[in-house]
């Protein structure tokens, strides 16, 4: 036994760091002397086996003391080798290389022989370079594992883990620093200007995916490999190097959610943060699977909860802002700025459909009257979106009272509802609101246009209905043309400044009016033009059918002279969403609601209470 210990000792002393004559003191043993490195590991195992035998014989023998001294020399050398490997091979131990290696191994295991045969020369070249890096990485990891197994087996696991943890924790801290992740307090966050905080949030959003999918994932792969011999050491080691940084990383979104100056436009920053955690959740569960990381997952959940609360608060403020908006209707009956603001906001919300759905799932509407039956089968997010659109449309009802002519009110309704439909169709909102909802709104647009045509062109259209099949005398014909001329000119002057912004809807209305007006006029024109060709015919038959067509073609661009249009609509329209000091509907709002829905003006109505009326009457 003594000879065996001496033989092992001879190998160990060759790599003694304290031997002043040893030329190998600064050598990279596991890189430059692979065989000797393996001999050293074998010598340690042999020495350990001998020490167990000697202890059984005599726990205080000189031979045991000598063996213990040799073991300390070996452990000191192995500590130095682990430190050298960890510090000198960061490139081959970077998280991206480790996580890529893991994913490639997983992919290769599922690739068939036929697929391998289809790999191109370029792919082979790239694969070769990657393989070379992987080979070095695998060798480095194997060396670390061999040292860790040897030291842990010899009872020096604590010393091994200390060196490993110090090095790899610094790697995580440095990487997060370069990614722009800072350690901030809630006090610092609250004092920040939003532009500064927004920039930090963008940095965080860019960093979190890399931090989770590459950095923490790679570190767990390395830790699991190096300390494969002990699950307890794997957990304590990974927890030591990653838990603090992970907690700091996932506490940032919660602090943003508590920012005291959250306003409507900050909704999408909040949803970005929520979305990023939600999308990474499966990876978080996998990477932070140890019990010691429960606090990290709890922090991520708490951040999502607070972000959800912030989003729900801002959504409530958004609905309130719509109800409080005090801007006037646009001259010309065009799309109101409030409509554009609300729908653009909802379109952005639709881009966060998954996160928005999760946030809204347990956030029921708080209204005084029941929702229409048509809402019953819809999802919570659909109901919420339908409700917001309904609040908008009810508000637009109130703004329409600034028009003195009811026909432009209908044009105003048609333009705004058509804009709503258009924005829904071109965004993710179409999936959230559904085809049935869209069909109902399109039907309402057609109804509004029909009412506009009937009431806006009443003086012109009724003349055809009354006289189309009646034979007239020349005097009656002359009077008919004079009446038509007067009616058409009056309507044209009034509507010359009216507008239909949507080209498709504008053309549809023009075609519809031409079909009703030009076709009817052509009959009278052809029947009586020759008979009235006597003196003053131009003063009586002032329009040819093509002239009427041209006049109609010029309408709905909003380019007419203001004195010919309906300009007495109150003050000029607001260019942005404005907030009044009261959430109660104005007296003017109530007048319009009563006019449209036959309500009792003496009663007290809130916008919420009107939902049944709007839902049933459109």
Q: Would you kindly provide a written description of the structure presented here, covering whatever features stand out?
A:
By secondary structure, the protein is mainly α. The chain has 25 helices and no strands. Helix 14 runs antiparallel to helix 16. The chain is rod-shaped and about 140 Å long. 34% of the residues are buried. The model is unreliable at 106-113, 119-127 and 561-618 (pLDDT under 50).
Number of strands: 0
Rough outline: rod-shaped
Structural class determined from secondary elements: mainly alpha
By DSSP (H or I, 4+ residues per run), the number of helices equals 25
Low-confidence stretches: 106-113, 119-127, 561-618
The percent of residues in helical segments reads over 70%
Helix-strand pattern, N to C?
A: HHHHHHHHHHHHHHHHHHHHHHHHH
Radius of gyration equals 40 Å
Q: The biggest beta sheet, please?
A: none
Strand percentage: under 5%
Integer average pLDDT: 82
Distance between the termini: 100 Å
Keywords:
Exo70_C; phosphatidylinositol-4,5-bisphosphate binding; mainly alpha; rod-shaped; Exo70; exocytosis; 618 residues; 0% strand; single chain; 71% helix; 25 helices
Write the layout of secondary structure elements.
Layout (H helix, E strand, L loop, with lengths): L1 H12 L15 H4 L1 H24 L4 H27 L6 H14 L4 H5 L3 H33 L3 H22 L7 H6 L2 H33 L4 H27 L9 H21 L6 H31 L12 H14 L2 H8 L19 H20 L6 H20 L3 H28 L1 H10 L6 H22 L7 H26 L8 H4 L4 H9 L33 H11 L13 H7 L1
Helix pairs in contact: 1-3, 1-4, 3-4, 4-7, 4-8, 5-10, 7-8, 8-10, 8-11, 10-11, 10-12, 11-13, 12-13, 14-16, 14-17, 16-17, 16-24, 17-18, 21-23
């Amino acid at each position: 036994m003594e000879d065996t210990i001496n033989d092992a000792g001879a190998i160990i002393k060759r790599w003694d760091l304290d031997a002043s004559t040893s030329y190998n003191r600064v050598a990279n043993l596991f890189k430059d002397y692979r065989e000797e490195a393996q001999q050293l590991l074998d010598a340690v195992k042999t020495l350990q086996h001998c020490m167990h035998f000697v202890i059984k014989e005599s726990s205080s023998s000189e031979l045991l003391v000598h063996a213990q001294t040799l073991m300390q020399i070996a452990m000191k050398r192995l500590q130095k080798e682990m430190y050298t490997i960890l510090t000198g091979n960061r490139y081959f131990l970077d998280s991206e290389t480790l996580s890529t290696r893991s994913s490639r191994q997983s992919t290769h295991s599922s690739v068939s022989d036929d697929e391998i045969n289809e790999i191109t020369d370029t792919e082979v070249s790239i694969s070769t370079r990657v393989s070379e890096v992987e080979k070095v990485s695998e060798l480095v990891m194997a060396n670390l594992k061999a040292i860790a197994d040897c030291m842990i087996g010899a009872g020096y696991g604590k010393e091994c883990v200390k060196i490993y943890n110090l090095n790899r924790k610094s790697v995580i801290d440095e990487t997060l620093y370069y990614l722009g992740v800072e350690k901030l307090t809630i006090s610092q966050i609250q004092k920040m200007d939003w532009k500064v905080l927004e920039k930090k949030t963008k940095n965080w959003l860019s960093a979190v995916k890399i931090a989770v999918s590459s950095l923490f994932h790679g570190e767990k792969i390395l830790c699991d490999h190096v300390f494969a011999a002990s699950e307890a050491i794997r957990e304590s080691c990974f927890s030591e190097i990653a838990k603090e940084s992970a907690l700091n990383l996932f506490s940032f979104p919660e602090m943003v959610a508590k920012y005291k100056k959250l306003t409507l436009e900050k909704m999408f920053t909040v949803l970005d943060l929520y979305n990023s955690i939600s999308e990474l959740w499966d990876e978080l569960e996998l990477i932070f699977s140890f019990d010691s990381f429960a606090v990290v997952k709890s922090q991520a959940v708490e951040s999502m909860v607070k972000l959800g609360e912030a989003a729900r608060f801002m959504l409530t403020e958004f609905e309130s802002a719509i109800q409080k908006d005090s801007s006037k209707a646009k001259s010309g009956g065009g799309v109101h700025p409030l409509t554009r603001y609300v729908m653009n906001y909802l379109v952005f919300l639709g881009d966060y459909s998954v996160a928005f759905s999760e946030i809204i799932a347990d956030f029921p509407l708080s209204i005084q009257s029941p929702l229409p039956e048509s809402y019953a089968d819809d999802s919570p997010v659909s109901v919420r979106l339908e409700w917001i659109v309904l609040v908008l449309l009810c508000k637009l009802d109130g703004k329409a009272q600034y028009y003195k002519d009811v026909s432009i009110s209908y044009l105003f309704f048609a333009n705004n509802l058509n804009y709503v439909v258009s924005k829904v169709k071109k965004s993710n909102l179409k999936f959230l609101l559904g085809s049935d909802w869209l069909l109902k709104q399109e039907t309402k647009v057609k109804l509004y246009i029909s009412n506009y045509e009937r009431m806006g062109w009443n003086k012109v259209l009724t003349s055809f209905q009354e006289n189309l099949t009646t034979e007239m005398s020349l005097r009656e014909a002359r009077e008919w043309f004079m009446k038509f001329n007067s009616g058409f000119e009056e309507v044209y002057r009034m509507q010359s400044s009216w507008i239909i912004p949507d080209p498709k809807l504008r053309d549809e209305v023009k075609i519809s009016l031409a079909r009703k007006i030009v076709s009817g006029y052509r009959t009278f024109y052809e029947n009586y033009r020759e008979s009235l060709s006597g003196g003053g015919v131009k003063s009586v038959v002032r329009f040819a059918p093509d002239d009427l067509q041209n006049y109609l073609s010029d309408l709905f661009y909003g380019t007419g002279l203001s004195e010919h249009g309906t300009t007495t609509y109150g003050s000029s329209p607001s260019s942005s969403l404005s907030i009044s000091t009261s959430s109660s509907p104005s007296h003017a709002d109530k007048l319009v609601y009563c006019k449209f829905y036959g309500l009792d003006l003496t009663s007290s109505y809130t916008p919420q209470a009107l939902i049944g009326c709007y839902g049933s009457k459109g």
